[in-house]
Amino acid sequence: MMASDGMLSLSWNNHKATFCHILSTLREKERYTDVTLACEGKFYPVHKLVLSTCSEYFENVFEHTPCKHPVVVLKDIKCADIEALLSYMYDGVVSVLQQDLARLIKAAELLQIKGLAVPDEPPLKEHNKKNAYPWSSRDDRSSPHPKRRRREETLTSTPQGSSVAPPESPHSSPQHHQESNQSWDHSKSLSQDQREDGIEQRVGDPVEPAVEFSSPKQEALHNQEPVDESLVKEEVIEGSEENEGERMDSRIEYGEGLGGGDSSTGGEEHGSKYSHQLDAKHPQPLHEAVVEALAGPSGMQGWLGTGELGGGFSMLEGYSEDGSQEVHPASTGPGTQQPHQMVGLNCDDSRLSRRRSIGKCHQCPFCSYSSDRKDHITIHIRTHTGEKPFLCPHCPYRAGTRSVLNNHIRVHTGEKPYACVLCPYRASHRHVLQFHILKHHK
DNA sequence: CAGCAGGGGGCGT
DNA sequence: CGCCCCCTGCTGG
């Protein structure tokens, strides 16, 4: 169509469809994903953009989460629902059994998924789900009902208030606070408060009373974690006893490895060994890797899981390069209404003490491993995430640490720095030399 | 033989 | 604090 002034208006006929398709494809390939949703032990690498577009809740969360690649642990929501909601958000459509509809809607309300959860309106009907196109509603995203949501619920701690309960307390009951929209509103309001009222004030948050901040560190923590302060607090509560001990600072860099995948193409020759990395062949390597990691008895299951330990899922917020946050194995009590929990990984202790060995204050969020060295935790976490930031310049091999890569590179360079003192033999690795000596010069 | 995971020392910022 | 490097124990092909 030509405009009167000679300007041409070029339209992409099926732009929306194509755009959405591409987005969906990107998710499948885990390309450019910058946030991971964790639910019932499963991990879903997705895009902040999409989540923010379809959910004001996520929008707020990300707004307060500086991390490059946060991990949002969703509690009280079934992974099936998350999958369905993701399908809805990415594809605009989702099929759901009638019997599961109520539950799905509830989850959508918790997460404030546009089109599925309409605060002021009655729960959507099925047809809504099918037709609603996330994108279509996004425009009003700001308008929807900010105020409404904003309704303050200072009552952060609900009767269940088990937030104070020990980690072991099984408040996992998924229903605890999802039951009503209010609960949703509640959480929402909290986050908004934080954002609008200022993060610092969180400390004074009503919830606070229940929480015992034993050390200044915690405050620091708060400052660092603008997001859902209430959540953090609760976490703190439970973990408070181990302020120094259980808190950990760890970071996961999903960056290249997980989301990017560009370079991840490599490793194929290494076979399945590296498949967990981001091989195109394994669209969800991260999931698998992490799930595996979680499988362990003492692993994340306890943590994220189930309520045995954590009583519901907690949010591991921000295991990212940028943001380290604290993770408290003990998730918030059921008292909280937030669909997720933010868990910080920062070990504020570090600030207080620069010494490395003051006890193992860094805990791996995925397993029972702990270390007094944050850097070691960082590396360790890569074993769970599959992240291997160090690429071999000669082959697709990727390593989790520089040292490992350097060792590997010797296979290409033929360098054999380890010489036998008893003969001309040289080995590329110390182990090899030791074996040689034992075998030939014993 | 190659790689992985964990621990420790050292260094620069 | 983060990174690098080294060492050790272990595993799998």
Automatic annotation (TrEMBL):
Keyword terms, alphabetized: Metal-binding, Nucleus, Zinc, Zinc-finger
GO cellular component, one term: nucleus
Pfam entry (one): BTB
Annotated Basic and acidic residues bias: 185-205, 245-254
Residues making up the signal peptide according to the UniProt record: none
PROSITE patterns named in the record: BTB, ZINC_FINGER_C2H2_2
GO terms of molecular function: zinc ion binding
Record-given protein name: Longitudinals lacking protein, isoform G
Organism: Chionoecetes opilio
Lineage of producing organism: Eukaryota, Metazoa, Ecdysozoa, Arthropoda, Crustacea
Gene name of this polypeptide: lola_11
